[in-house]
Amino acid sequence: MHFENKVVWIIGASSGIGAALAKQLAQQKALLILTARDSDRLHSLGKELNTLTSCVVLPADIARRDTLHIIVQDTLRKYGHVDIVIHSAGIGQRSLAIHTDISVYDRLMEVNFFGPLTITQLLLPHFKERSGGHIVAVSSMSGLMGFPGRSGYVASKHALKGYFETLQVEHDIPGFHITIVSPGRINTPLPLSALTADGQPYNKMDDAQLNGIPVNTCAKKILHAVQHKKQHLIIAKKERYLYWLRLLLPAAYYRIARKAGVKERHTASM
Ligand SMILES: NC(=O)c1ccc[n+]([C@@H]2O[C@H](COP(=O)([O-])OP(=O)(O)OC[C@H]3O[C@@H](n4cnc5c(N)ncnc54)[C@H](OP(=O)(O)O)[C@@H]3O)[C@@H](O)[C@H]2O)c1
């Protein structure tokens, strides 16, 4: 079992992809640290997983940047070190740029970009000292191309991918790896907490989300990529073709993406 006795810190573990990863890693006897804001959900997952492996819960809000150095110290104290960090915390968006309050962009950047960035900066000396470590950055297909109704989300995921891709090519830490994951739609409750134009949660599931790739399949592919030290992993259905279209036939990509934009404008006006 590749992950046995590896210390894995999952940030965004209370739901969706992070929770699915926690369950699969527990089966493989990884030593887990679970982080998210919802302490009750984390504790109930922790209780379930403690029957399989050692699992500690460390609730935190990664948008509170000034507290993250304490969170990182607390994490390192739990098992004395960390082998793998999974950045899965994130929030989505459902609003056209023209209607969207600037505070929504701030929030999306804080959670989806500055949180993971700050934690990574704080951990790099630890990985350097240990000559090893692995960071998994859950970006999105929205980190590779634009998508209507997601301007702030897309910007945050482009920033995330840009930062980690740069780290991949500039670090000189032996035994240290980064895997960037770009999922398309995965069947998780992400739309429920997605921010609308005034910052209120969208609170609905879209059909496209419900028909997304099963979350356990997504988690399995991520763990396979980590085990094989893959630098970039795309987990997507239709979005994969849109991405290739953008690279090879950009005019076709713009036509299709604009069509999705018309649909989004219609939804936003209802
Ligand atoms: N589902 C998809 O279709 C899809 C596609 C592409 C990329 N992704 C990315 O995958 C990652 C996981 O999303 P998901 O689909 O699993 O959605 P999810 O079920 O909503 O999970 C999001 C996780 O992030 C945590 N989180 C949100 N804000 C946080 C904060 N300020 N501090 C700490 N934790 C926070 C949530 O926990 P609390 O609410 O308890 O804090 C939850 O555990 C996200 O980065 C998302 O952008 C998802």
Automatic annotation (TrEMBL):
Domain of life assignment: Bacteria
Keywords in alphabetical order: Oxidoreductase
Cellular compartments per GO CC: membrane
Pfam families: adh_short
Domain Ketoreductase: 6-189
Family under the similarity heading: Belongs to the short-chain dehydrogenases/reductases (SDR) family.
NCBIfam families assigned to the protein according to its UniProt record, in alphabetical order: PRK06181.1 (NF004825)
Protein's name according to its UniProt entry: SDR family oxidoreductase
